[in-house]
Amino acid sequence: MPPTDPQELIRPNIMRIKPYRPGKPIEEVERELGISGIIKLASNENPLGPSPLAIEAMEQAVRETRLYPDNDCFYLTRDLAEHLQVPPERIVVGRGSDEILHNIGLAFLRPGDEVIVPDHMFTVYECTGHLMDATLVEVPLKDHTYDLAAMAERFSERTKVVFIANPNNPTGTSVGRGEVERFLEAMPSHAIAVFDEAYYEYVDDPDYAQTLGYVGGDKHVIVLRTFSKIYALAGLRVGYGIATPEIAAHLQRVREPFNVTNVTQAAARASLRDPGQVERSRKVNAEGKAYLYREFERLGLPYVPTQANFILVDVKRDCLPVFRGLLERGVIVRSGDVFDYPTHVRVTIGTQEENERFIAALEQCLA
Ligand SMILES: *Cc1c(COP(=O)(O)O)cnc(C)c1O
Fold this sequence. Notes:
Elements (H helix, E strand, L loop, with lengths): L5 H4 L16 H8 L5 E2 L11 H10 L12 H11 L6 E4 L1 H13 L5 E5 L4 H9 L3 E5 L8 H5 L6 E7 L11 H10 L5 E5 L23 E7 L12 E4 L2 H10 L7 H11 L2 H24 L11 E5 L4 H10 L2 E2 L1 E2 L8 E5 L3 H15 L1
Parallel strand pairs: 1-10, 3-4, 3-5, 5-6, 6-7
Antiparallel strand pairs: 2-8, 7-8, 9-12, 11-12
Pyridoxal-5'-phosphate (PLP) binds next to helix 5.
């Protein structure tokens, strides 16, 4: 007798999880197309790379990899507490903010609980919901922006978690203080609002909601940030959450031991000591954004104004041939179809040189 078909063993909700489709890695495109000199503007990585201080700290830390890392991320937590001006008990560090998103699901979602998300969402939210057999309540974006008023209308007895990417990915839009305050006022006390602020450091809208101030208020709020984007440590996998000490302790309970490597802890700490790297990155991003806006306008392509380091642009035709045409010209972007935007591509803002190469390639593809 052969063993039972795994299809009969698997939890049915797991079959609803769509495998994550990341931006194509450079090596994969080189292998498939046999070309070199490829640029990747597909995963919102920082083109400037990590701080030299972080690289130096990593080089030192590599010598200690014989030992398990500090399970509590004691020093990184202390440095983050100082950086954010919050008590260390409020901080949890994870293997990317993705791990913390999963852990929020593990700790809090019971089968049938409702998770409120937008219809064009960061795919990890969907995955977390299905993993825990929760019910996803999808609310349409309005003008490519989270519609917090419409989301508030969907609150129920079963609402447990609301995932709010601010700025949102893939649209780059953000929500303001007034909207967030009205949303939290309307939110039931048994629900948890998760503000996923992966692009926090890029935001320049003065009305952007500063959500750290809501942690410990009269509603449950978790704020997530990451070292993957402006700090350019995506390959190391490290992010952090800020919550009340009680919620933080629950998240610590479900995480894996030794979730953040010693090399990673060292790099993250060193990055916090180099605010100049963040400033330079913001500047390159702002200049690149202005350049790309001008070029999209020249080409007659509508785009969504962004608060982050990427732009969703409407190429006004099926995005897949454009995506492939760009690939063949050595430029990797993200095709919009994975986000249910079939005529858009999402491009990460690169260096001036990369942006110019992208525009030249795009013009050829559209000709
Ligand atoms: C990039 C991104 C993250 C960061 O993920 P990490 O696991 O920290 O690398 C989280 N949320 C959104 C919306 C993102 O775009």
